[in-house]
Amino acid sequence: MPRPLMSIPVLVLSCATAFAQAPAGKPAGARTATRQTLVEFEMMTWPEVKAAIEAGKTTALFYTGGTEQRGPQNVNGGHTLMGREIVRTIALRLGNAIAMPVLPYTPNNASAQLPGTIGLTPELLGAILERVTEQAMTTGFKNVVLMGDHGGGQPQTYADVARKVDAKYAPEGRHVYFCDEVYAKAQGDFDKWLHEHGYPSSSRRRCCISVETRDGSARS
Questions:
Q1: E-only strand ranges, the chain
Q2: Does residue 189 lie in a domain region?
């Protein structure tokens, strides 16, 4: 009877040995490279953030996603999911920036007919952007860039916040910018490509998808 109990310490010891030996099989540089590519603020510890800023990553990138119905073919968090990859890629390519957590809510209104949307008002979005920008400055960043995965009237909110907070910190040599090209220019370039290749514009295609969700037929 005591034999099964004796096997437990042996199993624990075997697992401990296995876990202890596993990392040794990886090249020493592999772990270092992984840490060097860490640019997501929410995945870093405070010592890592402090070290990154001291090493020159003094630009904070704020990207807003969104939670909204996007037709029967796309998930409600599509804007946020895309935003995470976009802002991370921008941070990696810049080399001097950190991607801040993506805001999953933007101006919009919920609907019982097309459930999936949870939105803010433009005023609330502006207040949130101003607050997180101020917090980034307090953290030690020298530059803050505001970006969003939306068009419509939202860009004005980003621009107003950037202008207001930049005026406060510019005398100190620190700045806040609104980058609209990450969305508007990308959409424009895509629509140009569609037109050149004989396809309808992306806005027209979105309209058709929206109509399909209401009555089951596509109309242009």
A1: 59-64, 97-99, 143-148, 175-178
A2: no
Phi first, then psi: give them for residue 27, nearest 5 degrees.
Answer: -60, 145
Domain extent, residue 18, equals 1-36
Measured CA to CA, the distance from residue 64 to residue 29 in angstroms comes to: 34
For residue 84, give the CATH number of its domain: 3.40.50.10310
Phi, psi dihedral angles at 59 (to 5 degrees)? -110, 125
**pLDDT-wise least confident of 21-25, 160-164, 181-185, 207-211:** 207-211
Number of domains in the chain: 2
Q: Is residue 122 a contact partner of residue 148, using CB atoms and an 8 Å limit?
A: no
Structure tokens at 92: 């990696």
The answer to the question of residue 101 being in a domain is yes
Q: For residue 118, which of 151, 61, 145, 79 has the smallest C-alpha distance? A: 79
Query: What's the gap between Cα 1 and its chain centre?
Result: 57
Mean pLDDT of 50-70: 97
Residue 73 token pair:
């073919």
